[in-house]
Design goal:
The complex is a heterodimer of chains A (about 425) and B (about 325). By secondary structure, chain A is an alpha/beta fold. In chain A, about 30% of the residues lie in helices and about 25% in strands. Chain A is globular, with a radius of gyration of 21 Å. Chain B is about 40% helix and about 15% strand. Chain B is built from 12 helices and 9 strands. Chain B is globular.
Chain lengths: ~425, ~325
């Protein structure tokens, strides 16, 4: 049984609040011991030793919202390429979305994803399954059976369940199994054919717009339905001040609700669209600066539980179109860590609290065993230097897709080692040892 | 007016009014005046663009604008080809880039493009080696329309600065409105936007216009009334309840016009919906309506634009649309 000693680390475990110098021991894919005094008497012979040289050692990141083209659009991204991208970004567990071709709305397809992941991926991959069959928002998928097959949560991916009666029954039924309903909160009729945030930029560009109220109305509706049914609800990605405020009110009333924000919603605002820059076309759309700041504030005060990459690979051809016709989406697995760390560097959020939103919080919501540093937990680890400066370079991406608006952006913080099941799955080629 | 050396207009493309300076706009209008005079003579033809190829690429149907550009090119001696992309070709979005590559290989000198999607003309210009002129993209810009409107006003009233212009109708979807608002603001005119709230962007005031929802209020003491076309599909309850109701509140008729200055001019980019946005008799009133004059100015303005832009590609390497190196 292989055993590895990680020494000279700054151990950060957001779940327990641990943040201090120490060492960690893994044996056969499991964390078996850790602490400041571990190996005080020297590292025993026979262990592989990794000298972290003062870098942060924390649980590997868990990304709750990742779009992968497999099955159906493997030219955009496969489970294998997404997993390589994840490893390079310090992400040890990705939750893939069900809007594939075919849609993940049957047990056999959940099994397929699990099998493909086991055979081809270097990180953990868990599927979310569809809330409704075919993502059509009409008929409930087999939520219980899908959950038994290890679907970790339910979502209609990039679509909202428009029909309130359907959503009511979904939340109600799901409450019996304690399932998490992860909803993309956008009132579709109000969003209409909009392609970017409503406001001055959209007006000047002459683009059909999506008002922030489309998100607020859906979140407020959902909160009423949660109140009515007791279903466990997670807003897949919040981007507006009003919706965040609504969610905070729901939490204050004791509702079983949580929320995530995509990195893009705090790393960019609508001006990134500039002159029809399709790489900045994403869902939810980039909002104005006040909303961006509200997302930061919502993360800081805990209203928003989770940070996700919203990794959404698109091929170049589908982006080289007039803005209205261009595909929606930004890749994010390899940029989530440094872009999130900007919130730590600019003093908005402490490092441990920030990491909690990408480790133990998603693990708790999804019922995963990882996301923490404790004896018996899986040895899914990230070692990184939070200060290391570098420039985002699309040519260095492991993802098949290059649709990023962050190319050339100077950032700080990069994965040095990514470990899954005790095995190193990524090692920074420029990071020394 | 001011210095009209060719270096005043340092652009290879004309993608929009946004980014033009007052002197650049003035230069286009001054040259347009010369072409108006030339177009009124029997011999209308010059050879400034002889040997050059102009392609009019229209992804949307248009009679007036396309004909105007065609005439402008031919009167300057260019070889003009019209291409109309079919609706099915537009749906396959890839064809835009493919079409650009194909046309580029034919070495045209100017490409005049109309497209139903905002930003599509700018996207095309990035893939073309030749000059690209925007003949209307989605709800974004229609720069030559704004220029011909400005020329019409300047010839009638002698200036643009200090005038009050009311733009009335479907401003939300109108590229004509956006280009006109920008141009008029750049030239120092006061712009009012008059429409029901459903046909106005929510952030309209950010473009430097005064917003009105009442025609009689908004038209008070204006020098120019600029009417916009309201498309049929927007009148059946989607944006306004009915044609009848729209005309009642927002159609231009004698009683509403009475609020404007006595000599106020009526403009319309065409094609008109008589009895929907404008009273038929008013539209034909030669003392008030300059709608036909706008058509005449259109040819002259497009000749001026084609002429000025061609100077950027005559004997020197092309200058970028940002004007660098001028």
């Amino acid at each position: 049984m292989s055993a590895t000693a990680y020494i000279n680390a700054r151990l950060i475990d957001p779940a327990s609040g641990l943040d201090g110098p120490g060492a960690l021991l893994t044996e056969g894919g499991i964390i078996t011991d850790l602490g400041a005094a571990l190996f005080d008497g020297g590292v025993p012979d026979g262990l592989e030793v990794v000298d972290c040289a003062g870098r942060v050692l924390c649980p590997g990141l868990i990304d709750m919202r990742v779009f992968v083209g497999e099955p159906g659009a493997e030219h955009k991204e496969t489970l294998a390429s997404a997993s390589a991208a994840a490893a390079a970004g310090g992400v040890t567990c990705i939750i893939v979305q069900p809007n594939t071709e075919p849609v993940i709305d049957e047990v056999a397809l959940v099994e397929y994803i699990k099998r493909q992941a086991r055979d081809k991926a270097v990180v953990r991959i868990h599927p979310m399954a569809a809330i409704t069959k075919g993502l059509r928002g009409e008929k409930m998928a087999e939520l219980g059976l899908l959950a038994e097959a290890d679907a970790v949560a339910f979502t209609d991916a990039d679509r909202a369940v428009a029909d309130a009666q359907v959503m009511r029954r979904v939340l109600s039924y799901a409450s019996a199994f304690d399932l998490l309903i992860c909803h993309y909160p956008e009132e579709p009729a109000l969003a209409g054919s909009g392609v970017m945030n409503a406001g001055e930029v959209a007006m000047r560009l002459g683009l059909p717009d999506i008002p922030t109220q489309a998100e607020t109305i859906m979140v407020e509706r959902d909160l009423r339905l949660v109140e009515m049914t007791g279903g466990r609800y997670h807003a897949a990605c919040l981007s507006t001040a009003q919706a965040i405020e609504a969610l905070a009110r729901g939490k204050a009333r004791g509702l079983p609700v949580s929320a995530a924000a995509a990195v893009h919603s705090f790393a960019l605002n609508e001006t990134a669209v500039g002159e029809y820059r399709t790489f900045a076309k994403t869902a939810p759309p980039l909002r104005d600066e006040a909303d961006r700041q509200a997302v930061v504030a919502g993360l800081a005060d805990g209203t928003i539980d989770v940070i996700c990459s919203c990794h959404d690979p698109q091929d170049v051809e589908s982006k080289r179109l007039p803005f209205e016709l261009a595909a929606t989406g930004i890749i994010g697995l390899e940029t989530m860590l440094p872009l999130a760390l900007a919130l730590y560097h600019n003093g908005a959020i402490g490092l441990s609290d920030l990491l909690a939103k990408m480790t133990c919080r998603p693990a708790q919501l999804l019922g995963l065993r990882g996301g923490k540093l404790s004896p018996g937990a899986p040895a899914d680890l990230l070692v990184f230097d939070p200060d290391k400066p570098w420039r985002i370079d699309e040519d260095g991406f492991h993802s098949k897709a290059k649709n990023t608006p962050y190319h050339d952006r100077p950032v700080q913080g990069r994965a040095w080692r990514t470990v899954v099941d005790g095995k190193v799955v990524y090692s920074d080629p420029n990071g020394g040892d | 007016m001011s210095d009209i050396s060719p270096h005043n207009f340092p652009f290879r493309h004309l993608l929009g009014i946004g980014g033009l300076s007052p002197s650049e706009i003035t230069e286009i209008l001054d040259l347009s005046d010369e072409y108006v005079a030339q177009n009124r003579q029997v011999d209308k033809k010059r050879s400034i663009l002889r040997g050059r190829t102009q392609i009019n690429l229209f992804f949307e149907t248009s009679t007036r604008t396309r004909t105007s550009f065609e005439l402008a090119g031919k009167r300057l001696g260019a070889d003009v080809i019209n291409m109309t992309a079919t609706a099915s070709a537009i749906k396959k979005g890839e064809t835009l880039i493919d079409t650009a590559a194909t046309l580029n290989a034919m070495h045209p000198d100017a490409l005049v493009v109309r497209h139903p999607h905002s930003g599509a003309v700018a996207l095309l210009s990035q893939k073309m080696d030749c000059s690209v002129i925007n003949a209307g993209d989605g709800s974004h810009e229609h720069p030559t329309q704004a220029l011909l409107d400005a020329l019409t006003i300047r010839r009638r009233l002698g200036r643009l600065h200090g005038l009050t212009v009311a733009i009335c109708g479907d401003i939300l979807h109108s590229r004509v409105a956006r280009s006109n608002i920008m141009l008029l603001n750049i030239m120092g005119a006061h712009v009012r936007a008059i429409a029901p709230p459903t046909l106005l962007p929510g952030t309209m005031d950010r473009m430097g216009v005064e917003v009105f929802h009442d025609m009689t209020e908004g038209l008070r003491d204006v020098d120019i009334v600029m009417m916009l076309r309201l498309q049929n599909e927007r009148m059946n309850g989607a944006y306004v309840p009915s044609t009848r109701e729209y005309y009642h509140f927002f159609g231009l008729d004698q009683s509403k016009l009475a609020k404007a200055k006595p000599e106020a001019l009526i403009m319309h980019p065409g094609p008109m919906n008589r009895g929907v946005e404008i009273d038929s008799e008013l539209a034909d009133d030669i003392n008030r309506s300059v709608i036909r004059e706008q058509v005449e100015m259109g040819v002259a303005v497009r000749m001026a634009v084609l002429d000025l832009i061609s100077r950027q590609t005559s004997n020197q390497p092309p200058v970028g649309p940002d004007g660098g190196g001028a």
